[in-house]
Specification:
Helices cover 53% and strands 0% of the residues. With 121 residues, it is mostly helical. The protein folds into two domains: 69 residues, no CATH class; 33 residues, no CATH class. Helix 1 packs parallel to helix 3 and helix 2 packs across helix 3.
Length: 121
């Protein structure tokens, strides 16, 4: 049986019970966090703390906190936990972010983005 993630304050939801996503990447980031939790990389309290830190930092930097940046904070919290737990490094995460940006730039709109070796150059 899968363990459900509780909705956290500020998490966009349909009726207060299920999360909603504006873009496919948001659903992927959500699923990745759930999967890494299920594999034991972090606990939900660790996750909630990491996410609260990211949201707090964003607010302090002027984020209006209208809900449209929620999953950006989610992704930043996930990246920080992955690096803090030693599952990857901040350098490696940045290398992959840049590779995905390059791949997205060369991919025509409407086509699937696929990483290639050249994207890491």
């Amino acid at each position: 049986m899968n363990e459900a993630i509780p909705l956290l304050p500020g998490m966009p939801s349909d009726d207060g019970t299920e999360p909603v996503f504006r873009e496919p990447w948001e659903a992927h980031a959500f699923a990745l966090a759930v999967s890494l939790h299920q594999r034991g990389l972090f606990t939900w309290p660790e996750w909630a703390d990491a996410l609260a830190r990211q949201i707090g930092a964003a607010r302090a930097a002027g984020d209006a906190d209208l809900g449209d940046t929620y999953y950006r904070h989610w992704l930043a919290a996930l990246e920080s936990l992955v690096a803090d737990k030693g599952a990857s490094s901040a350098v490696e995460l940045e290398r992959y972010r840049q590779a995905w940006d390059r791949a997205a730039d060369r991919t025509p709109h409407g086509h699937a983005i696929a990483l290639q070796e050249r994207d890491f150059g």
